[in-house]
From TrEMBL:
Gene3D superfamilies: Chitin binding domain. GO terms for cellular component: extracellular region. This is Putative peritrophin. Residues 1-60, 70-128, 133-199 form the Chitin-binding type-2 domain. SUPFAM superfamilies: Invertebrate chitin-binding proteins (SSF57625). One of its GO terms (molecular function) is chitin binding.
Length: 204
């Protein structure tokens, strides 16, 4: 059994990331986070000490309790990417073994490290080009032939969606309602002013 390093407080198990001891008046009580959550040394004594993986460093105490999977979840708690590198906009949230499926806003991908939806090119496990269906063409900024830091491209088959390429990586954007992306002016404009995007009052 572990001893209390201090009279009061919570202290990490030396080898298991989801285990800790809680000390009150020098008396240690072994504790275990729910399956899928990890103990955080940074949590104050008055806050819940168990967090999602990625929100604490488990490199020095990598072991965990055996998983308690259900028919819909690999663990009782957690966020999990659904799909693969070319389909990375959907994720699973598990609470008490029950799974809930969510979709990121269009063009964004689920980041398993930050546990939030992010630009696809910033998510290490996502192939932004495959996911968005667009590969940035090589563009040049001036007559000296230096590669452009960013460029604009209207999405194929769409008037109100376009890509901004930042250092040759695509990000999907959309124009406000009633506007379309002008490839000539590289910005959203009234759809009636963009050729081919307004026919008989219907946006294309």
């Amino acid at each position: 059994a572990q001893n209390c390093p201090e009279r009061n407080g919570r202290f990490a198990d030396p080898s298991q990331c989801d285990a800790y001891i809680e000390c009150e008046n020098g008396v240690p009580t072994p504790k275990l986070c729910p399956d899928g959550l990890m103990f955080s040394n940074e949590a104050s004594f008055f806050s819940y000490p168990c967090v999602y993986p990625g929100q604490t460093d488990c490199s020095s105490r990598p072991s965990t309790q055996p998983a308690q999977p259900t028919t819909s979840c690999p663990h009782q708690f957690g966020y999990y990417l659904l799909g693969d590198a070319n389909n990375c906009g959907q994720y699973l949230y598990c609470a008490h073994g029950k799974g809930f499926t969510f979709n990121c806003p269009e063009g964004l991908a689920f980041n398993e490290i930050s546990l939030r939806c992010d630009w696809a090119d910033l998510v290490p496990t996502c192939n932004a080009e495959g996911y968005l269906g667009f590969t940035c063409p090589v563009t040049y900024s001036n007559e000296l032939g230096y590669p452009a830091e960013y460029s604009y491209h209207r999405a194929s088959g769409s008037c109100d969606k376009y890509f901004i390429c930042l250092q040759d990586r695509p990000r999907l954007f959309g124009c406000p309602e009633g506007q379309a992306f002008s490839e000539d002016n590289k910005k959203c404009e009234d759809e009636r002013d963009v050729p081919g995007c307004y026919i008989q009052g219907v946006q294309q």
